[in-house]
Every structure is written in structure tokens, then in C-alpha cells.
Predict the 3D structure of the following.
Amino acid sequence: MSQHHVISVLVENKPGVLARIASMFARRGFNIHSLAVGPTAEPEMSRITLVVDGPEMEQIIKQLYKLVHVVKVTEMMPADGVEREVMLLRITADSERRGEILDAAGIFEAKAVDVGVKTITFELSGTPAKLADFLELMRPYGIVDLVKSGRIALTKDAKTRNGRPKLRSA
Amino acid sequence: MSETLTGAQALIRALELEGVDVIFGVPGGAILPAYDPLLDSPMRHVLARHEQGAGHMASGYAHASGRVGVMMATSGPGATNLITPLQDAHMDSIPVVAITGQVATRSIGNDAFQEAHTWGISMPCTKHNYLVTDPNDIPDVVREAFHLAATGRPGPVLVDLPKDILAGTMTWHRAGELSLPGYRPSVKGHPKQVKAAVDLILHSARPVLYAGGGIIRADAADELRRFAEMANTPTVTTLMARGAIPDSHPLAMGMPGMHGNYAAITAMQKSDLLIAVGARFDDRVTGDTTTFAPEARIIHVDVDPAEIGKVRAVDVPIVGDAKAVLAQLIATMQKALGDGAAPERAEWFATLRGWQEEHPLHYHQEPEGPIQQQYVIEELHRLTGGNAIVVAGVGQHQMWASQFWGFERPRTWVNSGGLGTMGYAVPAAIGAKAAMPEETVFAIDGDGCFQMTMQELITAATEGIPVKIAVMNNESLGMVKQWQNLFYDGRLSAVEFGSAAPDYVKLAEAMGCAGLRAEHPDDVTPALEKALAINDRPVVVEFRCDPGAMVFPMVPAGGSNDAIVLSIEDLA
């Protein structure tokens, strides 16, 4: 996890903006680990949260800025931001072990959203580390299916941040 | 008083408002609506014989004039044929705008006749591109396209217009205020960095000013010369920057890089400070980056922040326009110097002179032949007094032209540097001549390059654009053959054309041009004189050149700039 960087990209909400970013990453040989896109408080802007592999962070940020529809790029250090992912996890749960599984899920505040004859599906949101821990805990029971959202993140309020200067360019 | 126009009429009016005087294009189904109002416009349309030709014409126009070049094509194959010129312009930061037709919006995505996903295909080879979906957007999109093409780091912009958008109606309005919140190119450099740069320069014993194509793009040649003089720095000009400082200037060192001269390459290699302005540390300049200019600290001035630190770590980064930053450097240095002068650096200059005297560019013309390309280039320079725009294709002839033509002015050297597009010269020369009709435009082309785009001579002849083309006929793909000779044990694979065809004189005449031929060194001067005297139609002069000649010096690809190959004997 240490090599992953989270960058938050504020973009104009124009058709094809995601394709432009994906194309730039492919063209420059940069790797995208996860990606999430969604609206912001301003309707003409969207926010794209990317988890990318280093070490070329400076180039990645500069190349993002070269895209005309990219308005602002913020690299987030783990301490600077609030990061969340959502996971849906279906595990094998026969009647004998169902109680045990539900107890463990309770500790993680995972919600059972679908229960079948032989499986339970949990919904869990939280930090990437929390999701990873829950996954490890559930693995012995047998994972049937798994889907994770891309990571989303916001910087913490300025007052709580450690004053690290933000990267920006023209 | 609202006026209803078709999208096509709005497009033509918007192009007129941008000051466009020439469009290079080829019509076709989807772009048809735009060609109708063009009939009533004062803008000239040059009908190319292939869209690639139209694209390079627009680029040659922009190269020579500094104005935005415009190319136009239809959907599908018309648009895909523009991709090479767009990528070429992208690599060399040439301001061009491409207007392409597209199938009607309701047909997009249905594999309609002559449909191609132009927006997606052109995305990585443009600075920005548009698919217009409402005719009312046309004035703003055209304004933005020209603004983006010409400002910041210039480049190509494509506007894709579906047929129904061109045929549909809109209420005419001029473009509003630009709304580009993500596009704020820096112009002036940070004063602190400028100060730091001046300090480094004044304390440097062995500086080299490394001038790149950005100098030409920013019209900063005057500032470059003044700065070089004030700072007393020898100045190398990359392939894209030839003419940025006059080659006759005592500080001018000529071209560095793979086929640069020994002194220019070695000056960079041994320098303690490289001042890069509008240059991007291209692999053809640096050779192996791990051994490139090991003792040099780096000042890097570029309008594109992404170029700074991309290849080489930088000591003083300055983001800004070359012209504006050089003016700042001049002012700051003036202040720092007061009544004094920059360091004399007598030892450094003596060393450089020594290298120049020891290893000058050279060639030998045997009186009985075969003709050496360098001789043709030098003769042409002598006969024109260097007063011409020189256009080159890509390969040996291009390197010799860059080496042996003494460039005295910016925008007199038009060539394809970054992409290395063979076939560039003929159409680019036509574009340059259309932009600068008073100038003599002489293309120095290889026979391989010439055969890739020679059909555009018909365009030149029928449109009355009297360019002059020297075809350096060595009956082969000379540069590729050179590499096979040097690095593949002389095993020549698919590089020899044979001497049978074509007959360039007949070919030229068939296309409406004058055709001349020089087979013996004694023919060279009369042929060039004749070519320079014909101004009522294009001229093609074939020079039967030495098929075995090689370009030296040479730093083999990926090799170190410490190991310059000066002649074939060095490799024995």
C-alpha cells in the first residue's frame, strides 16, 4: 500500500473527460489502481479520485494539469485526507456457521444486505485498511463474490491539516 | 436583429473572425455543408490531393508565418488521414486547427458510411479536441480552438462537426468570454527563480545556452540573441531551433545532438551549466541520459511545466513563455551587472574554438562526382545568399540541410523534428509558400520522402504556388541504409529503390511543374540557377547523388554523447 498515492482531480463536467484522463494514463504508461467519479457540490464540476502507483507523481500531476478540462489536482497524503471505499462481499454461510459470521460482521459494522440459503452478502464501507481486515477475517469461510468501489477521498479541513504545501501549476 | 445562420455559415464566419486567410483541405460527404458558404468567403481554399498533404500544408503555413494553420477534411478516411499531420504538429508544438466533418449525430456509433471515431482517435495527438453537438456552440468552440492552438505551448486542436450540426441552424452570435477554468498558461517566470538563474549564470565558468524550438514558437529570437550576448554564453540551436540565433553570430555553435557538430555536442557535455530555453531534452539531443552533461547544473525555461524535470532533474525551473522569461532574464542580469560585464570566460571560449577547428563539419566533393548533397546545399545557399525558407523531409538530406545551411533568421527552417515524418517537405513547402508568397521556398527532399507525398506538386501547380523542390536522389532510403550499413553488418534490407524509376523530370512535367536534372557536379550550379529563375510554376530539380554517403558526426541511438563517431573510420 505504501507506493499508492491518492489524487483528487477536480474536472469540468464535460463529455469525455474521463476518457481523456484514462487515455493520458495509458499513453504515458502510468498505472491506475482505482478510480471513482462523481458529482461535486457545484453542478458544472466533477471529482475524480484516483489511486495511482508511484513513483512518477510529479509527472502524473503535471500531465493531468495539461488536460484542458482539469481544473485542480490535489495529492493527498494519508494523514491529510479522509478516504473511504465500499465493498459488497458474498461469503459461504451455511446454517451452522451463520451465527459466528454475523457476530464477526457486527464488530466491523458490516450490514447483511442479502441472505440466501448458503450465502450472506455484506455491505461494508470504511477505510481501505478496515475493508482489508474484514476481508481477511471472512476469507476462511469462503468468498463467493466480491466487488469494491474505487476509493473516494476529501482533504481534511485546513485547520486539521499539517500544512504541507499543495502541488499546483498553471 | 437576430440573424439565423446554418452551422456551416457560422463556422465560416467564425474562421473569418479568427483572421484565417487560407484553408488547406479536401471536401467529402460529411463536410459538404461547410464547403458551400466557403464559396462566398474571401478565405482561400487550397485543394490538396490527399488530406495528409493538407495537414502538412497547414503546418508549413504555421511554421513559416507563426499564424494558426487550418486544415479541413471530411469524416472517416478524411479525418484519419489528418492524424499523421496532427501528431507531427503535436510533437513540434505547431499551432494548427483541424476542422473535420462527421456523420450526423443520430448515426454516430452505428458504423455509418465514412464514420470514424475522430474525437477518440485524435485525442492523444491533439492539445485538445471537440465534438460539436449544437450549432449554437460553434462560435465559442472555434474561438477556444484557436486560443488553445496559439497560446501556452502551441499545438494542434481538432473540431469535429457532424453533418446535421453543419446543416442545422443557429442564432448568430460572436463568441463570448472564454470559459476555460482549467487552462491558465504561465507567461512570466517567477522573479525569484529568474534571479536564481542569473546568479548561476554569472558564476558559471562553462555555460551553454541550449535553445530549442520554443524560441521560434514564442518569436523570441531577438531576446535570445540579446541574452546570449549579455550573458556571454555560447549558444547551441537544436534541430527545431535552427535560425533562433544567426549561425554567423560569434556565440552561435550550431546544432547539437545525434548529428550535431562535435563542438556543439561536446560543449554541452563538458559544460557546468546548461540554460535550456524552449527545449525538452529530447533523446536525439541528450543521447544516453545517464552520461549526458554530467557536470552541468540545469536551468530550464519552458512554458509547459510537464517538460521541466521530465528527462533531467533541474536546479532552477522557470515556467513561462520563452520571450517573456528571456526579457526578464535580460532585465535582471542588467541590474546584476550594473556597469560591469558578464564573465569573459576566455578559457572556455578558447576550448570551444579548439574543438571547432579540430573537428569542423566537412565533406569532400570529387570534381567528377558523384554529387554530394552537402555541395548542393552549400551551392544553393551561395546562390540565394541564404535568403530562402528551407523545408526538409526526414533523413540524411534533412540532417545535411540543418548542418550546412547557415540560418540567419527564425522561421526560415521548416521540418519535422519530433515525429520525423517522411513526406513532410513537399506539402509543408506549399503551406510555407502560401503563407509567405514573397519568399523563395526551397524544399530539400530525399527521394524516399518525395515519393510519399509528391502528388501535392499537382496542388502547387494548379493553385499557382511556385515552390522549388530539390530531390536528392540516392536511389534509397538513405538514413535507414546508413543504419543497416553501420549496425547490421551492411545487410541491406528493403532500402534500395533501384535506379529505374521514376523519371523525376518527366514526373515533374506531368504534374505541371518544371523538371530539371543534375547528374554531374558541374551541373549543380546551372540547375540551381535555372530553378531559381523559374517563378511561374513549381520546379523539381533531381540531383543524382552519391548513394553511399553517410551523415557524420553521429552519436549512435542510445549511445553516450562522449562517444561521437566522426567518420566511418571511427567504427572500423
